[in-house]
Specification:
With about 450 residues, the protein is an all-alpha fold. The chain has 16 helices and two strands.
């Protein structure tokens, strides 16, 4: 019979007081709150906070000056100030409305349709209030920049012909009655689309489908520009538009990577796939135009880049680089078709192709999120991984968002038209909105 090791035998024969002493000494090294029930209280992370501060600034740059320059360069010279004025004024108006009620309706808990009023006028949001690992004030401002850019995009659909006063009333009502509830459905606590499993990492549904559908309805309700189809309505300064599109591209890293709400691997992958999809879409639009129009245009390549940015937005937290490349190539070609062939066949006058790029690009991106989502990155399995049901969920989210947005936008436009009128006088439109509405001109 084998005798036990002397070392093991000596441990077994230690007196009980000695063993208890060792246990008590070890317990003394453990923090007192380690035995408390539940998870530890949330704690601010300075790295996450710094990243979200930077992301918020990047997304604001997308609107002013990004969208302002993009749109300002794409209209005729007599309307450049009116167009940039609309974008700048929308930024100011939505900021105030978001602070008063928009944030509370979107991001507080009440029911699956609307948030509550606990944060009206940002009530109770002190310096110590946290949203995860960042101050709630930072999260609120980050989401504010999304609420700003969405209606700013809409304005491009009816550029050159809407009264400034009507625009302010329409945008104010739309941001409260359309944007805030849809943001709650997808991202807010208890929102029914998010709870159903609809994937939208950074705003393909909330921002781009929303803006695209509203732009299409606005263009149809207001009607075509004077001279549409008979006069030259070409952009007056594409250099401004290239600068604006470039600022959008750079700012979009805050838009997509910032939506991780942390400085982590998810943000890094979102940044990578955003760059890849954007470049791929710019090239695919350019080559499609080169084939069918025989010349690649500056307007075409920047439009393709924006289409890629739009399409990768809902997918940016769920797809890998290969999926991003496919999304970009598909989005560039499909959005080129929508902005040229579809627009001509349906006969609507969407001045700056808001529906063709943002509406169609958002729909393409939302659907392809279901195709290319990679479970290991953060999504459910995509269709290519064996879960075709995700595409049905994405279609559900697209359908609900588009239907509500279209109906609500139509009603708001009709009410504003009945009260103060939507469209500038024909004389003012011919003279240009810069001079007739704002008393200024560009020399």
């Amino acid at each position: 019979m084998q005798m036990p090791c002397r070392k093991n035998l000596s441990l077994r024969l230690q007196p009980l007081p000695t063993v208890l002493g060792v246990i008590l000494a070890a317990m003394a090294l453990v923090p007192a709150d380690a035995f408390a029930q539940g998870a530890p209280p949330p704690k601010i992370d300075t790295g996450d906070t710094a990243w979200m501060l930077a992301s918020t600034a990047l997304v604001l740059v997308m609107t002013i000056p990004g969208v302002a320059l993009l749109y300002g360069g794409m209209v005729r010279k007599k309307n450049v100030l009116a167009t940039t004025m609309q974008v700048f004024a929308i930024c100011c108006l939505v900021t105030v409305l978001w602070m008063i009620i928009g944030y509370s309706l979107a991001f507080t808990e009440a029911n699956p349709i609307f948030g509550g009023l606990s944060r009206i006028f940002l009530n109770g949001m002190g310096v110590d209030a946290l949203s995860g690992t960042i101050p709630e004030s930072v999260f609120m401002t980050f989401q504010m920049t999304f609420a700003i850019i969405t209606p700013a995009l809409i304005a491009g659909a009816f550029a050159d012909r809407m009264k400034f006063s009507a625009l302010l009333w329409f945008i104010g009502a739309w941001s409260i009655l359309v944007y805030a509830p849809i943001a709650h459905w997808v991202w807010g606590p208890g929102g029914f689309l998010g709870a159903a499993g609809v994937l939208d990492f950074a705003g393909g549904t909330v921002v781009h489908i929303n803006a695209g559908i509203a732009g299409l309805v606005g263009a149809l309700v207001i009607g075509k520009r004077l001279g549409y189809g008979t006069e030259n309505l070409a952009p007056h300064n594409l250099v401004l538009s290239v600068i604006g599109a470039s600022l959008l591209w750079v700012g979009w890293f805050g838009f997509n990577a910032g939506s991780a709400v942390a400085a982590n691997g998810s943000a890094g992958m979102a940044m990578a796939v955003t760059q890849i999809a954007t470049a791929a879409a710019a090239l695919s639009w350019m080559f499609a135009e080169w084939i069918f129009m025989e010349k690649p245009s500056v307007l075409g390549i920047i439009s393709g880049a924006i289409a890629g940015l739009v399409a990768i937005t809902p997918a940016s937290g769920f797809v890998d680089p290969t999926g991003a490349l496919a999304i970009g190539v598909i989005a560039g070609v499909v959005c080129y078709w929508a902005a040229t062939v579809l627009k001509r066949k349906l006969g609507y006058d969407d001045s700056l192709d808001v529906f063709g790029i943002h509406g169609v690009g958002g729909i393409v991106g939302a659907l392809l999120t279901g195709v290319f989502a990679v479970e290991a990155i953060g999504g459910t399995k995509g269709a290519l991984e064996g879960n075709a049901g995700q595409i049905l969920l994405q279609l559900y989210g697209i359908g609900v968002t588009a239907t509500y947005c279209a109906v609500a936008t139509f009603v708001i436009l009709k009410v504003v038209d009945a009260v103060i009128g939507l469209r500038a006088d024909a004389e003012d439109e011919r003279a240009g909105l810069d001079q007739s509405l704002h008393g200024e001109t560009v020399q």
